[in-house]
Every structure is written in C-alpha cells, then in structure tokens.
Amino acid sequence: MPCVSSDGKPTTSGMALLKSLKDGALSPKDISSKTGQPLFRIRSGLRELKNAGYVEETDSKYRLSENGKTLAK
Amino acid sequence: MAEEPQIEEVGLPVLGQKAPDFEAVTTQGTLRLSDFEGNWLVLFSHPADFTPVCTTEFIAFSKIYEELKKRNTELLGLSVDSVSSHIAWIRNVEKKMRVKIPFPIIADLNKEVAKKYGMIHPEQSKIETVRCVFVIDPESKIRAMIYYPLTTGRNMKEILRLIDALQTTDKHKVATPANWKPGDPVVVPPPATAEQAEERLKEGYKCKDWYLCMKKL
Question: Domain locations in chain B?
C-alpha cells in the first residue's frame, strides 16, 4: 500500500512501517516477519519512506531518520 | 476513416531469461519487479476491467491466493486500464461477488510492461493484453509462460500444479511426467552416457527402459 500520501505525510500503512522500526534498524525481511506483511510491500513502502526522508538505509538495513523518530513516538 | 492504433512489434520473453524489470503503478502503490525477489511470482495479464471472463478469473485467482502463499508465491495482475478503473472494479467485485482481491494490479496505461512481456497480440486485440501467465522464480528468472486467448479463462489448478512441478524440480533435481501432481512418481533425469544407461537399470528405479525411469520422492 502507498506509504506516503501526496502531501508528503506517511499514510496509515506508512506509520505502521515506521513504528516497526522503533526498536532499531531492520532488514526488509525482518520487518516482513515482524509485521506479517508481504516482502514486496515492505520493500516498496521503505523506498517511499526513504525518498520522503523518514527512514535511512545502511547496508540493506533501515532505521528511522530524525523526522521518522518524531512521528513514530 | 480513423487510423488503427499502431502497436510496436516486440519479441516474446524466453524461458530461463531474467524477467524484464519494471517500475509500475499498482493498486498497492508503486512496485518494481525486484520487490518480489526471494519469492516466486505469478505475473498475469487480463484484457480489461469490468469484463465477464476477467471477473471470473479474478475471483478464481483470489481463491487460490492462500494456496499460492503456502508456496512462497505472490500474485501480480496487469491490464492497460487506469488505477482508478482497477480500484472501482475490485470494489465492485467485493461488493457484488463478496470476494476481496488481495493482490496488486498494475495499471499499465502506457503499455510499458505489456510490451516488455509480449502481452499484446494484435491478431487478438490491438488495445488489450491477452491472458498471459508468467511464473518467475525467486532469482527473477522466467520459468514458465502460458498464453490464452481473450475468450478462454485460465485454469487455476494448472497454475498451482505448474508451480508445484517447478518447485519439485528445483528441490529434487527431477522432471515431472504428464499430468503429474504432488505425491505422484517423478522422472529420473535420463542417463548421459552408454555406461550410465547400462547402470540405470540396476539402480533400483521403476524403469520401462533405460531412458524412462521413475521414482517416488
């Protein structure tokens, strides 16, 4: 599902994805296992959230950016 | 007289080749083929939303969705309709037929993906995709293709059987005979040398002759 709406804010799916990263960096597979969401949806959602500046990627793992942390509180 | 739409000639994909990559708008957001890596994928096209045979197929695909998940397999539909049309159609199917469509559908308005996969066959229709099925493995290789005409709905049991057969072949390095289904004997790969052919009959398989030997898994 789209994770960022046209106004640049995370959608309900986007917020769920951000909250799954509250405890630290995870790979798309880890998030898929944790949330039960299909891997393709996680990858697509993380790409959108990364482009919008809510998450950062290092070595194929994703963590919340400062903006993402504020929202995921 | 109105000009007929021009369709660019494209070759069909080839079994074993890397499936053409794409990024496409779908009913579940923008997806790339690479988003499915690690899963098997059934990419299928249908001619148009709000048409009778396609509606029966979408209901049937939805009914095998859980079976596909058990096989680590995702579904991805495609037609040259808009995402709004797709959304309106699946909402209608849910409301009238009480079936939720759980998989994403590509809105391929510019036919970019359809052209890459040879989904438009002008003798069938110059503007719609025919009923294609591409089985793509976790490494994004095309492992099987089925092309059906506009008039003929696909057989879901055959799609499940095909995935079972491909996954069995990969796991056990065997082939599967005609009408094979899980639990049936499989075909032992034929010997490559005269020496192996001689030995084959002594290896304990059920053989009709040296080139046709079966075993239970």
Answer: 23-155, 173-215
